[in-house]
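Q&A log
Question type: sequence-to-structure
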Amino acid sequence: MDELKVFTGNAHPSLAQEVCEYLGIPLGKAEIFEFSNENIFVRILENVRERDVFLIQPLSSPVNKNLVELLIMIDAFKRASAGRITAVIPYYSYGRTDKKDQPRVPITARLIADLLTTAGANRLLTVDLHAAQIQGFFNIPVDELTALSILSDYWEEKGLDNLVVVATDIGISAHARDIASRLNAPLVIIEKRRVGNIDTTETLNVIGEVEGMRALTVDDEIDTAGSLVGAVDALLAHGATEVYACCTHPVFSGSAIEQIAKSPVKEVVVTDTMPVNGKRKLGKITVLPIASLLGEAIHRIHTGLSIGAMFE
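Response status: OK
Response body:
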């Protein structure tokens, strides 16, 4: 694997280090910092000419700074004559702006795809996009991994009986169905409506039977936790005995941690596609590592093996 190089920006260096430990290679050396005028500087500290380069950078908070940092990194590696540049973006921000659903609004998920391609990325590796059609925004190969097996294995080992899996909205129902199938549990869907452009939702209806059951909600991300708290309250009101939750991306913005702490939800299980840091101190939150999934995918892309075979 002499030609394989893995580098990281400042968004999630600990994840990149764990990926390198899985691969058995050292983390690439680069100097990345911000000047006093907020301009970002990148300098690669080793030879990458004709190397297969993977840049690990989730678009987590601060989203726009991490995005620009990634774009500048890609440009630096392109100008250093890297053989192939794969942007490894475990969390693809702006994924919810994936369509023109109101007059005079942008499709920002497509704009980000164009920026990454223009900067010089040859390939994208990501995890659980908010919408599958985002793959079609790229004119370069896109490998979308899923954390469903990691989450499913955790709940299978926990061995909760009398369980029902709950999709927190219709859009996530396919993923929730997969987890329900793995856990041999029935599927319930919560119908909800988003109120305007603010981070507020109104739970409308629980479609399915939850009375006397333990409920496990499934979503791709938890942002402000408003949807989660609303879902938990609705499920308990419909007779669920306990409610657990899981998602791939722990955004946890605003007062999310406080809301989860006050909510009757028993446990929230997430992966570390983005830094969780002190947020895991809340006893309800369990963080599962994603490094082995990313590391295996990087190995397979580098050696020309199938990514799909990982999930068969």
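Response note: The domain at 4-147+291-311 is CATH 3.40.50.2020 (Rossmann fold).
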